[in-house]
Write a structure and sequence with these properties.
The protein has nine helices and 16 strands. By secondary structure, it is α/β, with parallel strands linked by helices. Strands 6-9-10-3-11-12 form a six-stranded mixed beta sheet, with helices on both faces. Strand 1 and strand 2 form a beta hairpin. Helix 4 packs antiparallel against helix 5. The radius of gyration is 21 Å and the shape is elongated. The relative contact order is 0.14.
């Protein structure tokens, strides 16, 4: 098992810059959360990491070897994304069982037992055509491909879209089991942040095609605080610190602060200090501009 490294990745579509000089190292044996708003470049980045999309500039390496058009490295990677119910010729009429059969051929470490177990667990009808699947069933196929691929680095783009809360919990439990049993690396892009926060060992915030931060999730949340109270008290307590996401209600004020090493709030002011959830921190850093 090796690291997946991208160096100075840029992606342009015409004159539009989708990714701007992205440098990232995906370490082996960790679970990453990739979080960004729609249009931030998440899917583009994931597709470049797995050589499904060429970068305009920069390179991607797995275990020191280039990923692009290199079967040796691609055998270690799986990028499982939502299936397209339409093809060039119209509705995607491939049956689920045919799609799984193709995946068996493509992924050298495919686990047939796991495939069959997950098909049964999710109650998936493999005789159905892709075009006839509900959003939840499309997500189930995505998850089965990802887990049964047994790829060292497994990347999932919005895997829980359309799943109910029970199925989503099942998915995260399966990821944790695979991670612990086989030491696999997972990179999961999702909009449903809060329930996944405990699963992500590391979190990557992507904003406007650039990486805003990449940190250990627990350490990041320990640095984040929400400070509220009368505006003048909050301003005094946060003097000299960078504040995010200011909210004003009358004379009261609330701000989110991400403390850097050695920083602390000024003591002696009448303010309420609360921890910040991953979702609220993301909104504070990547939400609406001030």
């Amino acid at each position: 098992m090796g690291q997946l490294v991208c160096e100075n990745i840029e992606k342009k579509y015409g004159k539009k810059n989708v990714l701007n000089g992205v440098n990232l190292t995906i370490e082996q044996g960790k679970i990453y959360g990739l979080i960004g708003r729609n249009g931030a470049g998440k899917t583009t980045l994931l597709s470049i990491l797995t050589a499904q999309n060429p970068a305009t500039e920069g390179s991607v390496f797995y275990d020191g070897m280039p990923v692009w058009e290199n079967r040796e490295t691609l055998d270690h990677l799986c990028f499982s994304r939502e299936l397209n119910t339409l093809s060039i010729l119209g509705p995607n009429t491939i049956k689920v069982k045919e799609y799984l059969r193709m995946a068996r051929i493509y992924y050298p470490n495919w686990d047939r037992d796991m495939e069959q177990r997950l098909v049964a667990q999710f109650g998936l009808d493999v005789k159905k055509r892709i075009s006839k699947l509900s959003k939840g069933m499309l997500s189930m196929v995505t998850i089965i491909i990802a887990l049964a691929s047994k790829a060292d680095i497994t990347i999932l783009d919005e895997p829980v879209a359309g799943l109910d809360v029970v199925a989503r919990e099942d998915f995260y439990r399966l990821v944790l089991e695979e991670h612990e049993a086989a030491g696999r690396t997972f990179v999961i892009s999702t909009h449903i942040i809060e329930e996944a926060a405990n699963v992500f060992e590391k979190v990557i915030f992507l904003k406007d095609g650039s990486i805003l931060l990449e940190e250990d999730t627990q350490e990041l949340l320990e640095r984040a605080v929400h400070v509220s109270g009368l505006a003048e008290e909050v301003d005094a307590a946060c003097a000299g610190l960078t504040v995010h996401h200011t909210e004003m209600i009358g004379r009261s004020k609330g701000v989110t602060v991400l403390l850097e090493e050695g920083q602390s709030l000024a003591a002696g002011y009448d303010v309420t200090i609360q921890p910040v959830s991953l979702q609220n921190l993301f909104v504070a850093l990547c939400g609406r501009e001030e």
